[in-house]
Amino acid sequence: MQDAIPYGSARPWFAPPPSSSSSSSSSWGGEGGGMRRMVAENPVVVMGRRGCCMCHVARRLLLGLGVNPTVCEFGDEAAGLPVVFVGGRLLGGLDRLVAVHITGELVPILKEAGALWL
């Protein structure tokens, strides 16, 4: 299970993803490491169902801040809620993304992950 990024804490949240994990599923960290590799190689990844309005909102919020997230869309049978990864770690869904943005902690998190340069 992925560690969530804490907000409102004094300790730094960012740490590189672990190099190996004993509990990896076939699609998340299987032989090719498809999704795990995508999350590790891109500063910001938004995953969700194709055509999901909440995924669109998460993407537009990030684009508005100057971040170009990598978007991974799944078929209609997948869950509809977006999942946002920043710096190789799970940030959470749209509610968590908006909460961190409102508290003013999102921009420093994005800068630390290398997704935002200004």
From TrEMBL:
Alphabetic keyword roster: Cytoplasm, Redox-active center
Lineage of producing organism: Eukaryota, Viridiplantae, Streptophyta, Embryophyta, Tracheophyta
Xref: Gene3D superfamilies: Glutaredoxin (3.40.30.10)
NCBIfam families assigned: GlrX-like_plant
Subcellular location, record wording: Cytoplasm
InterPro entries linked to this entry: GlrX-like_pln_2, Thioredoxin-like_sf
UniProt cross-references to SUPFAM superfamilies, sorted A to Z: Thioredoxin-like
Designated name of the protein: Glutaredoxin
Gene Ontology CC annotations of this record: cytoplasm
Family per similarity comment: Belongs to the glutaredoxin family. CC-type subfamily.
Keyword Transport: no
